[in-house]
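Title: Request for sanity check on Transposase prediction

Description:
We are preparing a figure and want to confirm that the structure record we downloaded matches what your pipeline produces today. Could someone re-run it with the sequence below and paste the raw structure tokens into this thread? We only need the token string, no images.
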Amino acid sequence: WLSDKGMEHTRGAPCHPQTQGKIERWHQTLKNRILLENYFLPGDLEQQVAAFVDHYNHRRYHESLDNLTPADVYFGRGDIITLERERIKRETIKQRRLLHRDAAA
């Protein structure tokens, strides 16, 4: 499955953050988010962690993924979204050129 998706499983040294960079960064991000709130019941914490994971994977754009969400990349929607953004950008530039041309005339 991994090779079909163009991915490779790489194992790093245990307890060595330099080789576990991405997951360590994920843990740091999650930990920082958790520490911002007070949780009075275990269910509160579980609910907030689940909400954060959903936000992180389905709503938050990641610069390292060309401003796509991990879910977009995982489900193969990245190319379609990128093409649509490029189309919108071309149309916007076209409209701005027309507006500037009309303003200059």
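Thanks, this matches our download. The two ends are 59 Å apart (CA to CA).
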